[in-house]
Amino acid sequence: MNLTALIQRIQSPPFQKVGVFDLDQFYPAAERNKLAVRLNGLLAAPGFQAWLAGDALDVGQLLYTPSGKPRLSIFSIAHLSDSERMFFVTLLLNEVLGWVRSQPGTSSLRALLYMDEIFGFFPPVSEPPSKRPLLTLLKQARAFGLGVVLSTQNPVDLDYKGLANAGTWFIGRLQTENDKNRLLDGLAGVSEKGVDIKKVSGLIAGLNKRVFLLHNVHEEGLTVFQTRWALSYLRGPLTRAQIKLLMDPRRKEAEKARKEAAPRPAARQASAATSANPIPPPGVEQLFLPSRRQPSAPGRLFYHPALAAWAEVSLVDNKLGLAKTEPVGHSLELTENLLGLLWDQAVRLEVKPEEALPAPGEEGSYYSVPPKFASRLKGADKDYEDFLARTFHWTVWRSALLKINSEPGELERNFRIRLDQKARELRDEELAKLREKYAAKISGLERQMMTAQHRREREQEQYKEQAAHTAISMGATILGAIFGRGGRTSSLGRATTAARSASRTYYEKQDIQRAQEQERLARERMAELEKQLQQDAEEMTRAFDPEKEKLQEIVLRPKKADINVRWAGLLWVPYWQLEGGGLEAAF
């Protein structure tokens, strides 16, 4: 329902009661009229027309291409006013939240929502419309595989609940003490084992450009790291004219696709229509599609006759483990230029038979059924059944890599998206097993390295002590020899002691070198093991890459016994014939 129809329905609702209350008692006509006037002001505003054009805000289409490959969608709101920014961000966040809740749960990352400069959209005190859906995403989205990344220059711009639900923090240089204190308070609150606030404060104060402090709830302690290969052209935000230049080719492609997908009824002379309600041929049922869309310009409503049918097609395949029943419908516009009632020329009906009406929902004019077809509409159900048995089929895609089949009729794009997520889940499980396999080896090498480090430190201490003792002994020997105290025997004893001490010092130094060698070997083995782990992980990631896989296509066709024609007859399809020329679908 568009805004025009919504305003009309608010003024004259198609029901008289809400629960047990009369409509006017529950929502008086004067109050409804005020709401209609407000919506009409919105519709009449020139600046609002831009919001009514363009592609639908479909999160699934934004995340994946028509072929099922992941893609990046960027929204620029720099050119909007503050109220329009809040309107769009809130709308987008709620759409993302709705998409998230339609996904199955997973422990692997499915998509990433990144918002640069969160200022004003997630404040700690006020409650703007964007705050509630964003907080809900921070609390719940990880269970469905959605990661949320928020960026801000000032931690005081963030609600403390958001900080508590953020599992990973990248902390750069902070300009003010308030920002630093807020961050330290948050760290102290979310860390289970606590943090050394004084130490962290010193680390933050000493951070340089492109150096960050990492806090991860899944790891112990804090890590300081520096980004690599950072490249920025410092271009600044794009202007509206530049955005238009970038998007014009895509907009033209989308417009072309919409025009090709739009129904194109045959051109008719308005003078050939009559306002009298049509009478179907004997033995032929008729239905009317409701008029739901208002014209973009002044025009008249005309009903075009069409041959239509709805059916249910079933499939049971025990070998593939499939069971499905799918509703299907087709319509064939009846014109004088039509050579015969050939269902092969029919178009797919997206309207369900329950939505069609036994009488016209809105008055209009009717084009008559060509006389040459009037007597041939009666047996349309049998012809439609033959048509479905001959042409209707399901395409099932099979992945030999993951040994998974698609659902009957599932698009290859959607199946590849499912495969991609399943591959990530399997890859993460195998990587966890791989890390567990290497964990014992890495732990053993870490123990060896720590033992070597401790031994080196102990030997260095012993070496220092022995070196000092040797220096003292040598000094005493030299002084004794110079001043001749204690006689020759005493001097010889001191010299022997000094020599032994020097020998022990030499061996202590040798022990240090051996400890250092052991430590070096342990480090090298650790580096080799980590390199091997990385190689095995990369090979495993390549093994679980369904994007490069050529899927097997399996075509399944129904039997006549599995086709149930629910209705076949004359269907009246409404169109708006505009005063300036052209036709627009009204259904």
Task: Give a summary of the structure in a few sentences.
The chain has 587 residues and is of the alpha+beta class. It has 4 domains: 1-49; 50-250, 3-Layer(aba) Sandwich (Rossmann fold); 267-393 and 557-585, no CATH class; 414-548. The protein has helices spanning 3-11, 23-26, 29-44, 59-63, 82-101, 131-140, 160-165, 177-190, 197-205, 240-261, 371-374, 380-391, 412-483, 487-543; strands spanning 17-18, 21-22, 111-115, 146-150, 168-171, 211-216, 222-226, 286-288, 299-317, 322-333, 347-348, 365-366, 394-399, 404-405, 552-556, 563-578, 583-585.
Question: What is the general shape?
Answer: elongated
What's the main sheet like? 7 strands, mixed
> Based on DSSP secondary structure assignment, what is the total number of beta strands?
17
* Overall pLDDT: 81
Low-confidence stretches: none
> Structural class per helix/strand content?
alpha+beta
The CATH class of the largest domain: Alpha Beta
Second-tier CATH architecture of the largest domain: 3-Layer(aba) Sandwich
